[in-house]
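Below is how a single chain appears once it has passed through the pipeline. First comes the sequence as given, then the structure the pipeline wrote out for it. We keep one example in the README because the format questions we get most often are answered faster by looking than by reading.
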Amino acid sequence: MTTTLASPVGAQMRRRRIPHKRAIAMLLVPFGILFTLFYIVPIVYAFWQSLLVVKRDGTFGKAEQVFGGLAQYALVFQDEAFWASMGRMLMFGVVQVPVMLGLALLFALLLDSPLVKGRRFFRLAFFVPYAVPGVIAAIVWGSLFSPNLSPFTALTKNIDFLGADLVLWSIANIVTWVFVGYNMLIIYSALLAIPQELYEAARLDGAGQWRVAWSIKIPLVRPAIVMTAIFSIIGTLQLLAEPQVFRSFSSAVTSTFTPNMTVYATASIPNTNLAAAFSVVLAVTTFVLSFGFMKYMQRKEDNA
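Resulting structure:
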């Protein structure tokens, strides 16, 4: 006969009670309600709308929404303009995101360096562009790039910043200008959390500022860099305000220039069911890219 003895650790865990259950519930319930109403419900509703199609009895018959299965998704995958906009944003992200995060890391390291004076001023100066709404920033930079409005006419008349070849990178310039300071503060906060004992030990070993930054600071703030990269990937595929404003400055920016502009234009026809299908595909693509990047970095970290 075999006797099974209960593990004292397991028994202790079963006896342990979570304190302040009521307070935890009171704090979580409002968040859960708002999260459900303004996040989960819209996602479910958008997915349901993407499964519907509009049917009419005759040419002038009453329009009626009926279940159409994956008919809208078939139209999505046949839409060349939508996939061209996706490719455009992927190219945008491959170039703009590394440049933006590289500048954010550089500025954060400079602010954390003892060699830099006036840290409060520079921290505020780098962050101020993020306080400017995206629409206002696009109007300001669009005016600077426009040959008829810019005070730098000698430059804008020779270089067509709003032409088909450069307009995407003019928009990238705006996004970089706005979000470098935001990402810099996240990385800078991670730098402030590094124990000073590590720096002291490195100095005792004769390491200079460059060696400390490369061997201690950058590896320890890598999680913050990965987080900002994920945010940037999500933001890249959701780009809307800046290119929408640039339509008034450049004919090269069409109504389907970005995936979100395609969704907006489709919903304005109105064809809300196809717009919902575009949105679902865009959301799934964003999730796959951001989650795939996160898992890749985790695997790379584990193998290091």
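Strands lie at 52-55, 64-67.

See the next section for the split statistics.
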